[in-house]
Amino acid sequence: MKYKWIYFAISGVVIIPGVISLALWGLRPSVDFIGGTVWELQLARDQGDWNEVQGQIDTLIENEGIEISGSTLNDQGVVQLRSSTITPDQKKTIQQKYQDEITTDITELRFETVGPSLGRELLIKTITGVSLAALLILAYIAWRFKEKMYGVCAVLAMLHDSIIVLGVFSLIGHFWGVEVDSLFVTAVLTILSFSVHDTIVVYDRIRESIRKYPKLTFIELINKAVGETLVRSINNSLTIIFMLSALLLLGGESIRWFVFALLVGTIAGTYSSTFTAAPLLALWSEKLKKSK
């Protein structure tokens, strides 16, 4: 643990850009949170210029008085439109117009509308769920290990991972337009569970060593526990990282950013369990010793 300040510095280098991005730009919420409509249209291949067709569709929608918040075209010819709420009548009108005015064949892939009240409700439930999970984890670990410092340090390490994921998505949301949706919330809650799981393994080894090696100092016990669990933690995480990498490369567009969030969280959780949670515990014990 003599290198703990280096570990904290590494965490700071990763976290600070994300925190700055969150402060300046925040996250880019999807219609799941703010309400509106998502409309995906498949443009036929070899039938006109896709970019020109995308512009024509955008114009038709805007002519109906609908505000477009995002319009993207991928390399498969799929146009994804995000806008204020489109009513069924407006949708029929727009479809009739692009059938009459656009020569390219267009196939609807997806049409979803979420009301603003449902979006606000999901946002409140998300904040409540994450807060409740953190409090329950804090209470359980503090009770299980009979010391509140274990619970506090585990939750701080867990928040370390969450902030990294949020910061990464704030950055890619600002620069590449990636939005956070309900799947992102699922990923964050999964990351919290994974992070705490590895941390508890390290803490449990520390508790066992306290009974077995009463003559060792607390810092020596932490070093011993980290050394005994490090290889296991890395091997366990690598199996997850390989699987997620395969899903990221070969999976569909609909789960790409969900998988990416899990991948970032897994890497951050693997690091924090050893190089954040354990050093925080060492720092806490040193402060207690000085105060006595």
Automatic annotation (TrEMBL):
Share an example GO biological-process annotation for this protein.
protein targeting
Keywords assigned by UniProt?
Answer: Cell membrane, Membrane, Protein transport, Translocation, Transmembrane, Transmembrane helix, Transport
Return one GO MF term: protein-transporting ATPase activity
This protein's membrane topology, according to the annotation, is: Multi-pass membrane protein
The record's section on Gene3D superfamilies has: Multidrug efflux transporter AcrB transmembrane domain (1.20.1640.10)
Highest taxon, organism lineage: Bacteria
Protein export membrane protein SecD/SecF C-terminal domain mapped to chain residues: 97-286
Mention any Pfam family matching this sequence: SecD_SecF_C
Any one GO cellular component localisation term in the record: plasma membrane
Query: Where does the UniProt annotation locate this protein?
Result: Cell membrane
Residues annotated as transmembrane: 5-27, 122-143, 150-176, 182-203, 234-251, 257-284
Which family is it part of? Belongs to the SecD/SecF family. SecF subfamily.
PANTHER family per the UniProt record, alphabetical? PROTEIN TRANSLOCASE SUBUNIT SECF, PROTEIN-EXPORT MEMBRANE PROTEIN SEC
**Subunit info?**
Forms a complex with SecD. Part of the essential Sec protein translocation apparatus which comprises SecA, SecYEG and auxiliary proteins SecDF. Other proteins may also be involved.
Protein's job: Part of the Sec protein translocase complex. Interacts with the SecYEG preprotein conducting channel. SecDF uses the proton motive force (PMF) to complete protein translocation after the ATP-dependent function of SecA.
Official protein name in the record: Protein-export membrane protein SecF
